[in-house]
Design brief:
- 35% of the residues lie in helices and 13% in strands.
- With 492 residues, it is an alpha/beta fold.
- Strand 10, helix 15 and strand 11 form a beta-alpha-beta unit.
- Helix 7 runs parallel beside helix 9 and helix 14 runs parallel beside helix 15.
- It is globular.
- The structure holds D-gluconic acid (GCO).
- The site of D-gluconic acid (GCO) has 10 residues, from loops.
């Protein structure tokens, strides 16, 4: 079994990272407009005022997307572009998305729209932002407006993008907007309100979209990779994937967000650390947070290798010396796209979409006028082989969105981290499709058949796919991988 005929091949981008036109036609400032104007907040003082000028160049960009041959484009809607301070519709902002959606559909590309990719209206931040429960209600009103306006044509929705990151980076370490460093009680409140916003907006989208809307979300796909194919290591990786720790970084927990949203309960281990700090009466919100979802989205770029200590406890397996890294210093861990979707599908019982995957590489225009980004091609090829292997082994993965169609504003890193299939010259906004663009077009056109028949493991003696570290991961079947199937969140 490989990619099915109706596998969704897509690319992704997000409003603040590409749109520009930051104060045009009634667009209000977001927390990212304010943060990126703060001296020292973003590398080189970069900001998203112009970004990729996508608002002005959307027809050229739609052509680039459509010419790739993909059937889906994951875009995000800018909340402060489409709603005024009273939460009423801003006609000019909505008209931009009307045009964009129509242009995509005219070229045979389905829009997959995300409601929140981090650009919270600044005026709501001044009223408490995610710490204020009312933000969830405002978010539901915004979802209703967008669903009513676009729901006749947009059939695929994501509520939140990566709550883990905007809460951790934006509210704990302070390296992202709005730059807060809150204590755990406040973080738990903000996270709970974000989950409430997810639930309320999912319900609003279903109520307003016409007919057959599919609704999901795009959390960080935090997961662990078993260091070997020993069943004890596989079980340790599963437990690590769904653990909620109590040390810094706990907000990257998968289960803390996904268990309430999909299973209707917070995980026991997290509650044992934080139960007393939770907002009063949080249990009463769980039926609102748990909405029926059509799929489980996961943004996956990298992961950790984990093995079992003698008594089964998961422990990190250090990367080999000189391990492969992207320019962001993120390790290249293709097996994450095998094990992450497999663990998520097991626990949450939903079809999985890879809603983001890609890499920053050292791209510039070569003397022949082209951008030769061989590392990106190898990266994507390896990760896509893992998707194929997971599907082969019975994991229900329905689609893949490469991040990103074009180079863009990479948050606190500014424009120096290039993730695009299309190079953007930010001095003149010229777009140049990179080698990886043409490579991905071939993958899409062949429905994955142009990928290598076997992915050669990165290391000879490290990782579950290493020739000397065990057999290739795809020979393991869910049925025979291990006797025990630990679906609960117990871990430490
Ligand atoms: C995120 C966002 C994207 C990033 C991408 C690369 O995951 O941080 O969803 O906006 O640009 O992931 O870091």
């Amino acid at each position: 079994m490989s990619f099915s005929k109706d596998f969704t091949w897509g690319v992704a981008a997000a409003s603040y990272q590409i749109e520009g036109a930051h104060d045009r036609d009634g667009k209000l400032p977001s927390v990212w407009d304010a943060f990126s104007e703060t001296p020292g907040a973003v590398k080189h003082g970069d900001h998203g005022r112009a970004a990729c000028e996508h608002v002005d160049r959307s027809s050229e960009d739609v052509d680039l997307i459509a010419d790739l041959g993909v059937s889906a484009y994951r875009l995000s809607i800018s909340w402060p572009r489409v709603c005024d301070e009273l939460g009423k519709p801003n006609e000019a902002g909505l008209a931009f998305y009307d045009r964009l959606v129509d242009a995509l559909l005219a070229r045979g590309v389905q829009p997959w729209a995300t409601l929140f990719h981090w650009d919270l209206p600044l005026h709501l931040h001044h009223r408490g932002g995610w710490l204020n429960r009312e933000t969830a209600d405002r978010f539901a009103e915004y979802a209703r407006i967008v669903g009513e306006r676009l729901g006749d044509r947009v059939k695929h929705w994501f509520t939140l993008n990566e709550p883990q990151v905007f809460l951790d980076h934006g509210h704990s370490s302070g390296v992202h907007a709005p730059g807060l460093k809150l204590d755990n009680a406040s973080l738990l409140r903000a996270a709970h309100h974000a989950l409430l916003a997810h639930g309320k907006s999912a319900a609003a989208l279903r109520a307003t979209s016409h007919g057959d809307a599919t609704v999901g979300w795009a959390p960080v796909g935090s997961c662990a990779i078993p260091a070997t194919l020993d069943p004890a290591d596989i079980d340790a990786a599963r437990r690590a994937t769904f653990a909620t720790g109590k040390d810094k970084g706990w907000l990257f927990s998968t289960a803390w967000f996904a268990d309430p949203a999909v299973l209707g309960r917070y995980p026991e281990d997290g509650l044992s650390h934080f139960g007393e700090l939770m907002p009063k009466g949080f249990e009463n919100d769980l039926p609102i947070i748990q909405q029926p979802l059509d799929f489980y989205g996961a943004n996956i770029y990298q992961s950790q290798y984990v093995k079992a200590e003698p008594e089964g406890k998961p422990v990190g397996a250090p990367l080999p010396v000189g391990a492969a890294m992207t320019v962001f210093h993120w390790p290249v861990t293709p097996e994450a796209l095998y094990w992450g979707p497999r663990f998520f599908a097991e626990r949450y019982g939903l079809p999985v979409y890879i809603t983001e995957n890609g890499c920053a590489s050292m791209d510039w225009v070569h003397q022949d006028g082209r951008v030769h980004d061989a590392p990106r091609i190898d990266f994507l090829s390896r990760y896509l082989c893992s998707v194929r292997d997971a599907i082969h082994d019975g994991v229900d993965i329905r689609g893949y969105f490469q991040w990103s169609i074009m180079d863009n504003f990479e948050w606190a890193e500014g424009y120096r981290m290039r993730f695009g299939l299309v190079y953007v010259d930010f001095t003149n906004q010229r777009r140049i499709p990179k080698d990886s663009y043409h490579w991905y077009a071939r993958v899409v056109a062949s429905n994955g058949k142009s990928l290598p028949a076997e992915s050669v493991p990165l290391y000879e003696t490290f990782g579950p796919g290493a020739p000397n570290g065990g057999s290739a991961h795809r020979v393991i079947r869910p049925a025979d991988a291990e006797a025990s199937s630990n679906h609960d969140a117990s871990s430490d």
